[in-house]
């Protein structure tokens, strides 16, 4: 990182490594730094928003995404997104919308993840809300 301090991809890899090895203080500090230095970087936004939601600061998490949970509106200049970008964004969105009790937005994010055929255990954690909003 000292040789390439502005490389967001390396920063993202390191942040994920901190997260996976449960070095949460380092993960949070690097995520905040990455977001503050490059607020348009999607993975930086995702990491920082998830940290804010873990702190129950949903208002600030929403602001990280400029109060929109639509990738096309957030990045109008882009026509293509990598599947991992879509997964990261909508897995963050689904958590946000579930906690904010935003039914239609939650179900939309859930359907995006389902269409992408994400791992079943990821979708299963949201089944109570899906059952409540889709079938009850």
In brief, what are we looking at here?
It contains nine helices and no strands. By secondary structure, the chain is mainly α.
If you had to describe this structure to a student in words, what would you say it looks like?
The structure is a single chain. The chain is an all-alpha fold. It has two domains: 66 residues, Alpha Horseshoe (Serine Threonine Protein Phosphatase 5, Tetratricopeptide repeat), CATH 1.25.40; 69 residues. The chain is built from nine helices and no strands. The radius of gyration is 15 Å and the shape is globular. The N and C termini lie far apart (50 Å). The mean pLDDT is 90.
The fraction of residues assigned to DSSP E strands is under 5%
Q: Main sheet?
A: none
- Overall helicity: 55-70%
Secondary structural class: mainly alpha
Tell me the radius of gyration.
15 Å
Distance between the termini: 50 Å
Low-pLDDT sequence parts: none
Count of individual helical segments:
9
- Overall tally of domains: 2
Q: What general form does the structure show?
A: globular
**How many β-strands, per DSSP?**
0
The secondary-structure element order is: HHHHHHHHH
Mean pLDDT: 90
Draw up the topology in text.
Elements (H helix, E strand, L loop, with lengths): L7 H13 L3 H14 L4 H13 L3 H7 L6 H4 L8 H17 L3 H13 L4 H5 L2 H9 L1
List keywords for this structure.
Serine Threonine Protein Phosphatase 5, Tetratricopeptide repeat; 136 residues; mainly alpha
């Amino acid at each position: 990182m000292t040789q390439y301090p502005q490389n967001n991809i390396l920063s993202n890899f390191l942040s994920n490594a901190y997260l996976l090895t449960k070095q949460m203080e380092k993960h949070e500090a690097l995520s905040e730094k990455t977001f503050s230095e490059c607020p348009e970087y999607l993975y930086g936004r995702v990491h920082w928003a998830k940290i804010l939601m873990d702190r129950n600061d949903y208002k600030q998490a929403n602001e990280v995404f400029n109060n929109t949970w639509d990738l096309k509106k957030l990045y109008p200049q882009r026509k293509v997104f990598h599947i991992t970008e879509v997964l990261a964004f909508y897995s963050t969105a689904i958590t946000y919308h579930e906690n904010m009790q935003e039914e239609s937005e939650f179900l939309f994010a859930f359907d995006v993840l389902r269409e992408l055929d994400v791992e079943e255990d990821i979708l299963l954690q949201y089944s109570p809300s899906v059952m409540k909003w889709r079938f009850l």
